[in-house]
Amino acid sequence: MGRISIDKPLIKELSELLDENNLSEISVTQGRLSLKVSRNLTSGGTIITQNRDKNTLEVEDKEVLSDYAGAVKSPMVGTIYLASSPKDKPFISIGQSIKEGDQLFIIEAMKTMNPVKSPFSGVVKQINIKNETPVEYDEVLAVIDII
User: Fold this and answer.
1) Which of 42, 44, 38, 40 is nearest to 14 (CA)?
2) Which domain holds residue 134?
3) Which among 72, 65, 123, 127 is positioned nearest to 95, based on CA atoms?
4) What is the residue-wise DSSP string for 20-48?
5) What pLDDT, on a 0 to 100 scale, did the predictor assign at position 122?
6) What is the mean pLDDT of residues 35-57?
7) Which residue from 22, 69, 24 is spatially nearest to 47, judged by alpha carbons?
8) CATH number for position 85
9) Residue 141 and residue 72 in one domain
10) Are residues 56 and 103 in the same domain?
11) Looking at residues 53-57, what average pLDDT do you find?
């Protein structure tokens, strides 16, 4: 693949538009050049893809949460619940101290409710999912600062 020049000021401007307008993706096409800037909503970062003549270049400028030592990943595909019922308070909240084995979430898979327990003790730094949404296997659900 030949060298592809990146219009950094344009990418910066599009990234700011994403944040300002709470958009997930913006695409711009000029002739044979197309540029797509999209937010990775689970990690809060930005993924940039530039395509010229079917050559693609991706630039990732984001924290890779799956490599973080305190990442809590989904053990299965299913629908996630933050509390045991809609009237109950969530199992965890940001800033909360938790112990290894504490329940964090419930994942419903094949009409079975499966508890997701903390693999370590620490403080909840980030919750990356919303209640009653689908999750994928190995998706980062939360980040815990390990004590």
Assistant:
1) 38
2) 65-146
3) 123
4) HHT-SEEEEEETTEEEEEEEETTTTEEEE
5) 94
6) 51
7) 24
8) 2.40.50.100
9) yes
10) no
11) 42
Report, in this order, helix, strand and coil percent for the chain, each rounded to 5.
Answer: 10, 45, 45
**35 or 4: whose pLDDT is higher?**
35
Short-list 42, 53, 46, 49, CA closest to 19:
46
Tokens 């659900």 identify what position?
Answer: 141
Count of structural domains within the chain: 2
* Residue 39 clears pLDDT 70, i.e. is over it: no
Indicate whether 82 and 137 sit together in one domain: yes
In this predicted structure, the answer to whether residue 100 has a pLDDT above a threshold of 90 is yes
SS3 9: helix
pTM: 0.57
With bands split at pLDDT 50, 70 and 90, how would you rate the model's confidence at 65? Answer: low
The label of the residue with tokens 């599009």 reads 14
Give me the amino acid identity at 37: V
- Please report whether residue 106 resides in a domain: yes
Ramachandran angles phi, psi of 113, nearest 5°: -90, 120
